[in-house]
Design brief:
The chain has four helices and 24 strands. By secondary structure, it is of the alpha+beta class. Among the domains are: about 80 residues, Beta Barrel (conserved putative lor/sdh protein from methanococcus maripaludis s2 fold); about 90 residues, Efflux pump adaptor protein, beta barrel domain (Elongation Factor Tu (Ef-tu), domain 3); about 60 residues, Helix Hairpins, CATH 1.10.287.470. A hairpin with a 6-residue loop joins β12 and β13. The radius of gyration is 45 Å and the shape is elongated.
Amino acid sequence: MLLNFLSLMSSTRSLWPVFILLLTACDNSPSQKPSRKPTTPLVETVSASYHSVSIKQTITGTLQAIRTVTIINQVPGLLTALPVYPGDRVKHGQTLVQLDDALLKSEVEKAKASLNQAKVDYRRLKDLAPRNLASESEVAQAQTLNEIAKADLNLKQTELSHSQIKAPFTGVISQRLVEPGDVIPLHSHLLTLIDTSSLKAEIRLSELLLPLIKTGNQVDISIDALGEQKFKGLIQRIYPVIDESTRQGTIEVTLNPVPDGALAGQFCRVTIYAQSKSRLMIPYDTVRHDKQGAYVFAFINNQAKRINISTGFQHENLIEVLDGLADQQQIISKGLFGLKDGMSVKLISLPSTKG
């Protein structure tokens, strides 16, 4: 019996590799997974539409005096009197600065004496000329010297007048930079005088808003230091140049009358009201941005089509479209994630005519 069993094992040994390969093939057979077709994105749309929009924009600025003058001496000399201090209110024509004028007065007296002598010489030669006791050239020379003496006197009198400086307008002293006893070089900054009869602020405004305002328009001005109260101001002037880097222009607004407590240098907020204008608007959150700029996805023939646009003002949750879209053109408002240009989409809502 043992011999029969060994013979059987020997006869079947050659079949084992085949049997093992069959088992391995059965174990490694790929599982059959059902294939999935890509789903079509579901989207909702809105329509670009025109809205009558009145723009209100608040811009920060700094209050400034309506006029600021630097008081500078036109002659050098010893400062003998400076009776005003910062905060002092001065009247037009009031003396602000007095320089030592003793030497200048002497120069004036000398010029007067020279002029008197020139006049005498000229009259004497003029009287002698008809009797041929003086030549015409001598008379002409005397006349010239007389005119020179007049001019020299005027020069000395002008220099004397410059030793005293008076207020060019009614205002407030804001700076005092020298003291009596100082020897003042020519053209030194002595005082600063400001006109606070009204205050102004220069603010920057987008070039898109500038055509919608004009001089004389009323604005609201609030001053942080005075609380939440608003004061009325006016657009005084619009500067004719646009900053090419910021695309903003400068406007000047004035505050008149000046409320109690308002001072030059205070922080202020200016609210500008631009005239109402019909603008093509779309929801702000429909706009996407990349290196090429702003764009939206339009819904065209059940496809998402990229359209590059130029945008303008944002008003609440809407933004103006300056270029790229037409009135009532459908754009995708929901389902934007993962969208690509030309991708098939499925609309799940009726087009809306509201922006």
